């Protein structure tokens, strides 16, 4: 038996910093970039004395990193025997998932099947789409243009090479720093969620075959909620802090309006640090998780474009720390700024939801307006409205733009006050130029901001023109797009699918 599950990366388009504190919300889009976890048995047959084993084996393979790690799994405690940690996110995902299966699988037949699967050992293979990694340096080193076409020419699930660390001017021989940087799509959350999803399904704790019917309260909905609780727990323990969790929530449920869970929900898991797994997990799965997730995605005929400026890296934890320090030092000013940001975020969300509703109720005028506006700068959008419905659509587009400009203004003010480059000057120039292009609705820095990435929401077919303009400005347009779907059970190993696609595209004359 083999199980393949995948989970998407994310882009936080509104709610940066605010999403850290309840009851503030963030608008998060899940993407076409996905992590895959493949789980199969290590042994097909069991020896006659296996019933007496206290330990089983776990092997984790990462082909892109040319890495393999083996562990002993305590069948009684559901913990891995770690001499040194190879990947804390995967290790915590395994421990929490096995413990969750033991807690939630209660029928006799299910328990027997679970015990057998664990005795056979677990072989986990992990693959991440190229979109999670930056290939900008390699492209520039080869003198190639910064275009999506060059990214498209890379083989799927490209190998990731590592630099040797340099200490005191000498090579240590320890290859631990990735040569390939990340693009900020939440790789650790997507990877953790894919591993948890594959293991929980493989071990019989959830059934991911019916995800299309996952309304809240349905069996599929309850399974997703269990998966979310376990993935959040594993991810928080692995990173050593209880973050907002929007990245894991997007990996599980897909694009959404997200309000974080109360941090105290994970207090038991945090205290044990993963040592008393069964007690911690039993507590986690019975608690009432109070996060909020409302379905949200871009309206029709709008697309997400991401770009990599290549103007230096940003450390999200240190930027968050500086903003929190500013909040303490100037509580009144910071409160005023957050209130204004909250109002602008809500305005943006309301207008985007309104546009989705207008598309649903009045498709023809909606399509006509968006196709026309995609060929015009925003100053001329009002000229395309020739009916009442079209006027409503154009007005909603312009109010959404204004709300987003307001968000950018207050984010810049917050960055200046806190002494961190939330929207650096170089990004401001690029974003202003982008927002003045034909067919561009929004352009900003995702999440916590900084130098790492920019995004744009574009009308109709204007994406190619924006991508070309970014290339001319030294920005690498990425291939990733919005995909509102969350975690998924896959039919097969994605490498098989890629080979099949390549073979079917070969034309024999």
From TrEMBL:
Pathway the protein acts in: Isoprenoid biosynthesis; isopentenyl diphosphate biosynthesis via mevalonate pathway; isopentenyl diphosphate from (R)-mevalonate: step 2/3
Regions annotated as coiled coil: none
Assigned EC number: 2.7.4.2
GO annotation terms (biological process): farnesyl diphosphate biosynthetic process, mevalonate pathway; isopentenyl diphosphate biosynthetic process, mevalonate pathway; steroid biosynthetic process
UniProt-listed InterPro entries: Erg8, GHMP_kinase_C_sf, Phosphomevalonate_kinase, Ribosomal_Su5_D2-typ_SF, Ribsml_uS5_D2-typ_fold_subgr
GO cellular component, one term: peroxisome
Enzyme class: transferase
Molecular-function annotations in GO: ATP binding; phosphomevalonate kinase activity
Domain of life: Eukaryota
UniProt KW keywords: ATP-binding, Kinase, Lipid biosynthesis, Lipid metabolism, Nucleotide-binding, Steroid biosynthesis, Steroid metabolism, Transferase
Region (Disordered): 316-335
NCBIfam families associated with the record: Pmev_kin_ERG8
Membership in a protein family: Belongs to the GHMP kinase family. Mevalonate kinase subfamily.
Protein name: phosphomevalonate kinase
